[in-house]
Amino acid sequence: MNSNVREIAPIIDWLIGRVAFYIEQPVRNVSPDIALAELGIESVSAVSLCGEIEDKWELELDPTVVFDYPTIAAMASFIAEETVLSYQKV
């Protein structure tokens, strides 16, 4: 497992848990490589998820981020990159 995968694994796990909550499915039914829309995330849930991401990682995001990074894996990579960038600004 390379370091990048190790770094985003906790983010992926968290996102899987939140998506499972919103789509009312067990976490085992949530794949990080399937588009959030295909998993059943609706726009209201996407905005709520975006707000949770902002709170958890202290980021300011446009709610359209879930469309720009449509899978959990893509979103996790984005979050990891953004948190690194925000720490570098401090």
Question: Summed up, what is this model?
Answer:
The chain has 5 helices and no strands. With 90 residues, it is mainly α.
What key phrases describe this protein's structure?
mainly alpha; 69% helix; Non-ribosomal Peptide Synthetase Peptidyl Carrier Protein, Chain A; 90 residues; single chain
CATH class: Mainly Alpha
Q: How many E-type strands?
A: 0
Query: Rg, please?
Result: 13 Å
Class from helix and strand fractions: mainly alpha
The H/E string reads HHHHH
Number of domains: 1
**Name given to the CATH homologous superfamily:** ACP-like
Query: Spans of 5+ residues with little confidence (pLDDT < 50)?
Result: none
Head-to-tail CA distance between termini: 29 Å
CATH fold label: Non-ribosomal Peptide Synthetase Peptidyl Carrier Protein, Chain A
Percent range of helical residues: 55-70%
Report the total helices: 5
Strand content: under 5%
| Silhouette | globular
Major β-sheet profile = none
Rounded mean pLDDT is: 89
Give the CATH architecture.
Orthogonal Bundle
Structural notes for this entry:
The chain is globular. It has helices at 3-23, 36-39, 43-57, 65-68, 72-89. The protein has five helices and no strands. It is mainly α and 90 residues long.
